[in-house]
Amino acid sequence: MPDSDRDSIFGRIRESLATASQQAPYPEYEDEVATAKRRFRDGDTLWETFATNFSAVNGRPMTELAEVIDFLKSEGATVGYCDPTLEESIGRVCQENAFEIHCHFERERFDDYQFGITRASAAIAETGTLVLTDSDTSDRLGALTPWIHIAVLPESRLVSSVAQAIAGFGRESNIIWATGPSKTADVEGILIEGVHGPGEQICLKTAGLQ
Amino acid sequence: MASPLQPIDDYARTLAPETRAAVIKSAAFTSGQRIEVLRRDYEDPDALRKLARKIKQHTIDRLDHYLEQAESRLKAAGAQVHFATDGPSACRQVLKILQEHGVTRLVKSKSMATEEIHLNPFLEKHGIESIETDLGEFIVQIDDDHPSHIVRPIIHKNRRQVAESLERHGLGAYDDDPKTITRRARVHLREKYMQSGAGITGGNFVSAESGRMVLVTNEGNARFSMAPNKVHIAVIGIEKLVPRDRDLAVFLSLLARSATAQQITVYTQFINGPRSANQPSGPEHMHVVFLDNGRSQVLGGECREILRCIRCGACQNVCPVYRQASGHAYRAVYGGPIGAVLSPLIGDSISFSNYGDLPRASSLCGACREVCPVDIPIPDLLLKLRHGAKKAKLPSPGSPPMGPFADLATSPKLWRTSMTASRAMNYLPLQFAPVKPLRDWLDQRTLPKWRGGEFRRWLKQRPSPVEDQKKHA
Ligand code: SF4
Fold this sequence. Notes:
The complex is a heterodimer of chains A (210) and B (473). In chain A, 26% of the residues lie in helices and 23% in strands. Chain A has helices spanning 2-19, 46-56, 65-74, 87-96, 162-167; strands at residues 60-62, 79-82, 100-102, 115-119, 122-124, 129-133, 148-154, 158-159, 174-178, 183-184, 192-193, 200-206. With 473 residues, chain B is an alpha/beta fold. In chain B, strands 1-10-7-4-2-3 form a six-stranded parallel beta sheet, with helices on both faces. In chain B, strands 8-5-6-9 form a four-stranded mixed beta sheet.
């Protein structure tokens, strides 16, 4: 009976709206009306603003691959997933540092990957947010199931505000914004990181890629 | 015997002190943080919520147009769109989709719409395992309990109670460290995500312009409910629309700050269709079920403004009645000020007689309206509903009998006499008065000392203002 459900819902809506005395117009407003201007410091570059706001939510902004390698070692990670298109540039260096790298995500082994390296499509300075899309993410699971996620961000893809990021949606049908590691405050309001998504969120800025 | 108290007072009286303490602490803390974050980030946070109000009011005033637009955009993007007039119809349609895809176990991310239609017990009855993955909702599910807050489902439990639940459910020996609790749920649920056939979610907003539905979670459970699964079903109230993608910047900014005092929720997903062709993981099928369940009727009534609600829970956190009584006191799926308005209105035709008392469980202090990110005049709506309940002659325990007072107050002569006579009240043990409703009412309250009649005496002795002026001229 789905179609009759549809008809009766639209019928009732129209009936109800007919009784309304007036219709509120769509308000005029500036795109950036909800931008938190106070989250930008005078003189900071977009990357600096992003890094400040990303750090504020316990994300880890990094500019050198060596930094990432050191962090992975300090966390005791040994096995990771890597986007095949990043194998040459990043996967290889990881292997040279004795990490086991897989460029194909095997579902059965999802718990074995301690870190995942995938691309970010963009990042938002205002909120310290990484933008992940189906087009640029080699495997959604690779960016989600490992404890540590490393998003590789070409600096040119930084945008300043949430409003700008929305304006740039284009035809992408699956967009994920990630602002720091996964968290909960469900138990007595105490903040715990690493619930279902990554417990560590790294953003590695690159100049050259793409 | 019927209780002389409002049902909500009855419940509040039996509330365990540790439950009340947990609710008050957490609600008060979030309320404080909320205002801090809004003031930190915006010069004029009030202007932003006034704008949000206008956008949302415009949307519901043209709901037919925007709903149709969202439907066609979603279809064009490859999603299948369904409509459900009420809970039973929504449940049946979800079941049918699952059966068509041969799904017998699924994972769910937090959704008030699915709570509203009692989807889990329905699926269970039909042999489908449906697992809640939001940490709070997971605890609620294994406890056979109900969420008591729309954003923080287990606000009514402390860590000891949560630890006991996990222990009972075989997730390790008792340990009440919130970190251990979280890790254990993580490990347990990871397996479930990977072994299920579908992910069911709600939806926070739908942009009519693009058909993009927006999902926010802090834990990442909505992402995980989708990424390994072939089928995604979203159950979304028909009022969740906004006209354009750009409007989402306004609403996401307000939602995160109002709900959890965050600048933005950790994960925000914008979805309009199944996974892209190049993407190995993610649903191949996307189904959106638009749920009415009484909303289209509310649209034509005097409480239509409640349809602007974005379910942030700020009115619950700030409400003195909610803090004292907890969400379960409201008996319905939605508690607190939002629930007091919504519960009598949505669902089936008996909702009003079931929940018509809830609008009276408020002192009309107005705090809910002040914090509401879409500026809903909740106290006004409560008054309208009270009036409706009176007209429908719903029982109203807890109210003192006002009849005799009305007689008195409308006859000047009687009033004069009673004023002087009433001084005797100070010496009467009214708790033992022979009028039962009066006794019950006084049981809850202490009357101030009677000082009736003094205004009249003062007025009489006062020189008339005209005389007074002449004297000073
Ligand atoms: S009524 Fe307003 S404050 Fe309450 S949940 Fe809805 S949007 Fe939030």
